[in-house]
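ASSEMBLY PREDICTION REQUEST
Request ID: AP-0331
Submitted by: J.K., bench scientist
Number of chains: two
Total residues: 786
Priority: normal
Notes: Please return the full assembly, not individual chains.
Input sequences:
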Amino acid sequence: MEIRLENFSKSFGPVKVIEDMDLTIGDCEMVALLGPSGCGKTTTLYAVCGIHRVTSGRIWFGDKDVTDLPPQKKNVGVVFQSFALYPHLSVFENIAFPLRIRKDGSAEIERLVKEMAGVLHMEELLDRRPGQLSGGQQQRVALARALVRQPDVLLMDEPLANLDAGLRLEMRSEIRRIQRENGCTSILVTHDQVEAMSMCDRIALMNDGKIQQIGTPDEMYQQPRNRFVAGFIGNPPISFCDGVIQDHRFVTEGLDFDLPDRFEAASITAGQKVTIGVRPEYVRPEFAVPIEGEITFVESQGREVLYDLTLAGGKVFRSIQGGGPKFKIGENVRWGIDIGATFFFDERGNRI
Amino acid sequence: MRGRRSLLPVWFMLPASVAVTVFFVIPVFMTFVFSFTSMSSDTGILGNRYIVTEATIRELTERGVDADLVKRLGSRVFAFDQAGLAAVGKSGLKPPVVKEIEEKLAGAVFGSEKELFAALKSLKNRPRSFRDRKAVSKAVVNTIVNREFRTATGFRAGLASINVEVDDATFDRLLGLVNTSWSWTTKNYVELLASDFTLKILANTMFYVFFTLIFNVGFALVLALATFYMPSGQSKFFRAVWLIPRISPSVIYVMLWKWFTFDSGFMSYFLGTFGVAPENWLNEYPWTFVIFANGFVGASMGMIIFASAVLAIPRDVLHAAEVDGAYPWQQVRRVILPMMAWPILFVTSYQTLSLLTSFEYILLLTDGGPGFFTTETWALNAYHTALSNYYGNLRYGFGATLAVVLVVVGIALSLLYLRLFDFKALVAEPPIES
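STATUS: Completed
Returned structure:
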């Protein structure tokens, strides 16, 4: 079922958290709401499931306007960050809860809960209480409870935040598998770009209550619309460098190169301040546009090594290179950047 | 080092131990002890008190004491011995009269007041008025009637002063018969079991505790949940309002109830506008108002505990219930109440125990009435029996017996509640977080 947000705004008293947000999530699609904390992503999720009232704008599930429906009347499954299991009920009863409220027959409930437990590999946990489960097990119970009644929409609020690293990896693919099998439209709220990129079809990157860019993980990475997106997506992060345009050249202290051909005279003017963004993989010895500087930081990540290259003027470029640590701190090197993969942003941060 | 480690907890516990000992252990123990005595305001609480009263004298005859002896026990002897003469000297008579009495009557003994007065009249400086003669009589009279003797020797001396000589066996018998002090007895318990009132008071107590408890806990829950779903400013206001019964002085609180219910009070006035005849509603429905007055006071405590317990439920859990389809009433029944099982159990048990023993509001409101034992509860009855009643005979021993029953019931209930609370589960190690 398609979810559509039209001009959705949400304020708490005088504080505007979300302003005029438009977002369409296709049937069976899984979209991540990604962003730093406080950007309004959880607020959006709570508005979609109906816990928060919408201040203005409309929310559609398929052809149905659900803006003013209370959560009880929307068929949504929600996985909360804290899992929010009912501590006084057994795992079985936790999963069965939405069905009991719906007044399903007990045989039907038994069948559905058992089936769900099978999908999530936790048949042997059904008699336990949430307090007797590990974090990963609780997470699966929360997921089962959200999915057991075949929701139109599955909403997940930082579902992996409370899990340890190993479990997080496992649950990432697990959640994706189950979502595909159930075929329900999903929204995943997360602040972790890796989570968003690995689990979702598309990402909606949010900042300050606005969607900065919506796209597939690749689009986000390859074609960031603005400086925020470029800076947020990518790990290790992109390096930014401020400079000025002179004679169709980008000039800053310690770096000076011809603008690529795609910039016509009209789109970029002399004296304009621009910022370039270069991802670490495009700062390497083999690239054409030369940058010279001193290596000020080396971090081996095993397969790859991360370097900080500090130019004469103090500008820092991050580089990631394979094949073991070949350079040392303090060494002066002459590397290059790939100008074709370099992003240019204007003063307001928009990409040009 | 060792000493510090072992003594510190003792010091910490000392104030509590002293308080528990002084205010609980000793009183309970003494109550238990008193319950096996016949102490009352008749017997006093000091032992060995020998009194011969007019009533005893009649009783002695019935108990087969020699009639002649009984008659002599009640007799008066007027003796001008040293003590008698000294008393005459201080009686305020004129000196010549005193002087002549000392000269002429020293050593004289009279068996009746009539003989004494005749002798006085024969004196030259005789006391002229009846009042003066009475003063002499009062100064020299010896009697044991209505005199309190604390020891057997004192009682024997008392007998000697009225010239009664008895052999040891008779003396011992007499001593036993006139001893009005308390004695050790199990009669209190027998009386408690046999008394017709015991069942009535027991039924009253159970009725009172049960219904007040239901009102208390139920109303506290309603208040806590209602204020939970209210905007925060309003909920604070309502909680503060419901604290008023608790913080207002009980006497004034009960006075307001009385004013509210009497036949020209608010309730009668209000109902009068609907054509209902004025009545003393408290007299008409005493239990209703006893339960309401107590319930409103108790509800505030439950409300505070329940309100904080509701707030302690993670918001996410309630949100989860919402998206799982539960409307407020279903949230309350299926999530909030089960998650508040502990505070509910705690308030219930605490209130049971305090309702069993508290009686000040009933005392002030109906004092066990109207009529005979209508709203008399066990604790109130213990208070009435032992410390304050219409008849004026305070039966400390029987009152203590009533109190002992309360203590035993209270301890039994506490143990039961501790089991229900599953104390071991409370102190059990938490499950391992992975």
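REVIEWER COMMENTS: The radius of gyration of chain A is 24 Å.
SIGN-OFF: pending second reviewer
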